[in-house]
């Protein structure tokens, strides 16, 4: 009886200590199946990281330098590039340190900060993609009213709407996650602080956090992608009716479909990885980690090509800057034979 009572007391003490203890540091364990060879992943991710930085920075530079590109559509593209740069800087450098040097630990405050900025910047990107789709809709479907609708006041309201929506929702999401107790495992099955990857470690009720996660998907994916899809369908309908030549029709179809594919990758892959833990979808950790990186890295890598290289005005602006720089760096004077160059 005494031994039995002592065992019960020990169990109660462990439970009591567990409830009054919460981890202050966490360890990332992304790609556990490749844990012994994770350093091999550093090469492709480093290449993608540099590609994002160079491609998006170059596009920002071109839009900034060429005055003819200072129009609403190109300013939205420029802002999108800045957001892409910021979101990969928030995630990738820390992840590369973990892959190369096993620096996998992060404090709870650092984890919550990374979570906020990652999801905040992703929500800003969603709003920018929506704004770009609506801008093209007005320009093509309502061309006579474009200057009236798309002006400086519209951009101010867009900025206010973006900040209010993104900050309020993401602050609530992170606040709920930060209020949880983590008295079990402190191993995050991811390469960065994804919301549900952290929340799934909590030892108390996560119902409110799960509901908040679903609300984020409804608010951003449900609303934004519906409006984007409607806008592109209307744009495609108007362009196909106006295009007389088969080549023009194919170009319009190719452009709209390319934009939609990139956007669908951003929304669909992001939604799956975000909801996998909410809905208890059994996805292997390696695949879920890869998808969580894909929905951030793929659009950030491909956007400079989709909105830069394939856009005639931006491409011409780049060549104009390149030619000016070439003339300044290599001034050549042709002199008649026998005369000195002055």
Distance between the termini: 108 Å
Q: What general form does the structure show?
A: globular
**What would you report as the Rg, rounded to the nearest angstrom?**
25 Å
The mean pLDDT is 82
| Class per helix and strand makeup | mainly alpha
Percent of residues in helical segments? over 70%
**Topology as a string of helices (H) and strands (E):** HEHHEHHHEHHHHH
- SS summary, helix count: 11
Main β sheet profile? 3 strands, mixed
**What topology, given as strand order, has the largest sheet?**
2-1-3
Total strand segments: 3
- Indicate the low-confidence ranges by residue numbers: 1-18
Task: Give the strand content.
Answer: under 5%
Structural features, described:
The protein is mostly helical and 342 residues long. The chain is 74% helix and 3% strand. The chain contains eleven helices and three strands. Strands 2-1-3 form a three-stranded mixed β-sheet. It is globular, with a radius of gyration of 25 Å. It starts with a helix and ends in a 13-residue tail after the last helix.
Considering the chains and any ligands shown, give keywords for the structure:
single chain; mainly alpha; 3 strands; 74% helix; disordered N terminus
Compile the SSE list and pairings.
Layout: H1 2-19, E1 25-28, H2 39-65, H3 72-101, E2 105-107, H4 108-141, H5 146-149, H6 152-178, E3 187-188, H7 195-199, H8 207-242, H9 246-275, H10 285-309, H11 312-329
Parallel strand pairs: 1-3
Antiparallel strand pairs: 1-2
Helix pairs in contact: 2-3, 2-10, 2-11, 3-4, 3-10, 4-6, 4-8, 6-8, 8-9, 9-10
């Amino acid at each position: 009886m005494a031994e039995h009572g002592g065992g019960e007391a020990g169990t109660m003490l462990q439970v009591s200590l567990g409830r009054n203890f919460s981890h202050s540091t966490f360890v990332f364990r992304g790609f556990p199946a490749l844990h012994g060879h994770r350093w091999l992943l550093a090469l492709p991710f480093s290449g993608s990281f540099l590609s994002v930085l160079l491609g998006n920075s170059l596009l920002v530079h071109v839009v900034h330098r060429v005055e003819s590109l200072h129009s609403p559509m190109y300013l939205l593209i420029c802002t999108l590039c800045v957001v892409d740069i910021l979101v990969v800087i928030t995630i990738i450098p820390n992840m590369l340190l973990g892959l190369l040097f096993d620096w996998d630990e992060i404090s709870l405050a650092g984890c919550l900060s990374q979570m906020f900025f990652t999801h905040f910047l992703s929500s800003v990107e969603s709003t920018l993609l929506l704004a770009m789709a609506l801008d093209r809709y007005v320009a093509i479907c309502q061309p006579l009213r474009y200057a009236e609708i798309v002006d400086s006041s519209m951009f101010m309201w867009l900025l206010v709407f973006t900040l209010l929506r993104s900050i309020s929702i993401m602050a609530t999401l992170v606040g709920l996650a930060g209020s949880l107790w983590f008295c079990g495992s402190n191993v995050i099955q991811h390469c960065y602080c994804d919301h549900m990857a952290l929340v799934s470690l909590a030892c108390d009720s996560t119902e409110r956090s799960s509901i908040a996660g679903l609300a984020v998907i409804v608010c951003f994916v449900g609303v934004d992608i519906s409006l984007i899809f409607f806008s592109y369908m209307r744009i495609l309908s108007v362009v196909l009716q106006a295009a007389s030549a088969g080549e023009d029709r194919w170009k319009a179809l190719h452009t709209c479909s390319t934009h939609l594919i990139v956007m669908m990758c951003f929304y669909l892959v992001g939604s799956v990885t975000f909801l996998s833990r909410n809905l208890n979808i059994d996805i292997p950790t390696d695949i879920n980690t890869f998808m969580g990186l894909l929905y951030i890295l793929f659009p950030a890598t491909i956007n400079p090509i989709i909105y830069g290289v394939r856009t005639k005005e931006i491409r011409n602006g780049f060549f104009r800057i390149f030619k000016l720089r070439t003339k300044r760096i290599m001034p050549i004077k042709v002199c008649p034979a026998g005369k000195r160059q002055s």
